[in-house]
């Protein structure tokens, strides 16, 4: 601190609810350091600083949790107060859906921990390219996932295709690792589409859900293909 020209510092705990405790420090470059009057004034600020810091920390935690479990776009809507049942927002987007083939057979025959490791590796291979290219995973569906690339973003369709290409490359690398450890390769399907996705609140709580008007099209694309090649809907081709 002296090398930065500081002459004194003080530190106090900040007490939050639920027994949480944090630390706050103050430093000064005033010759002679803090006077007693300065320290007394800072102490008077501690209750206010504790309140403000707890609000900021909880806001950040809430935002992180919402982004993790419902996605960034839906999370922002929830934070903005869009929680009334029956309300919804329509987003024009490029849609990607994928799932594993023969997962039921795998889960019936593989040890539980191996199945969990498999799913983690598979979702890493799929989700990291999606996030890297500006997509948002709306939900995980068993061994599959549904992601969107809002058309409000520049080059949304191209970004989706880049994500698919990188995900396929990641799956090739994953299957090579699995082959080296004596595991069978993982087969999967990917379907893409362009259409309107509706964020809506349904259910008694209500939970956050996604109602996609083209949602039945992407799964049909996915079901019709031979893994691991992706397929496109006719709507996508018209674009």
UniProtKB/TrEMBL annotation:
- Database matches in Gene3D superfamilies: Nucleotide cyclase
In the record, biological process GO terms are: cAMP biosynthetic process; intracellular signal transduction
Which residue intervals define the domain Guanylate cyclase in the entry? 94-211
Record InterPro entries = A/G_cyclase, Adenylyl/Guanylyl_Cyclase_3/4, Nucleotide_cyclase
Q: Which CDD domains match?
A: CHD
Q: Which GO terms describe its molecular function?
A: adenylate cyclase activity
PROSITE patterns noted in UniProt: GUANYLATE_CYCLASE_2
Highest taxon, organism lineage? Bacteria
| PANTHER family cross-referenced by the UniProt entry | ADENYLATE CYCLASE, TERMINAL-DIFFERENTIATION SPECIFIC-RELATED, BLR2264 PROTEIN
What is the protein name given in its UniProt record? Putative adenylate cyclase
């Amino acid at each position: 601190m002296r090398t930065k020209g500081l002459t004194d510092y003080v530190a106090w705990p900040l007490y939050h609810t639920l027994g949480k405790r944090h630390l706050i420090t103050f430093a000064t470059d005033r010759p002679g350091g803090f006077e007693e009057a300065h320290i007394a004034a800072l102490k008077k600020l501690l209750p206010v600083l504790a309140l403000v810091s707890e609000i900021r920390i909880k806001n950040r935690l809430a935002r992180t949790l919402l982004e993790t479990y419902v996605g960034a776009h839906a999370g922002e809507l929830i934070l903005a107060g869009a929680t009334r049942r029956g309300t919804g927002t329509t987003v024009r987007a490029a849609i990607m859906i994928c799932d594993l083939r023969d997962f039921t057979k795998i889960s019936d025959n593989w040890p539980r921990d191996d199945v969990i490791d498999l799913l983690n590796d598979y979702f890493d291979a799929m989700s990291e390219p999606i996030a890297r290219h500006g997509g948002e995973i709306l939900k995980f569906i068993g061994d599959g996932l549904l992601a969107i690339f809002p058309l409000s973003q520049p080059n949304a369709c191209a970004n989706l295709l880049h994500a698919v290409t990188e995900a396929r490359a990641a799956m090739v690398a994953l299957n090579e690792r699995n082959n080296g450890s004596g595991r069978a390769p993982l087969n999967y399907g990917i379907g893409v589409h362009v259409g309107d996705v509706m964020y809506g609140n349904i259910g008694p709580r209500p939970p956050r859900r996604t109602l996609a008007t083209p949602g039945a099209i992407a799964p049909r694309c996915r079901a019709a293909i031979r893994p691991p090649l992706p397929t496109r809907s006719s709507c996508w081709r018209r674009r």
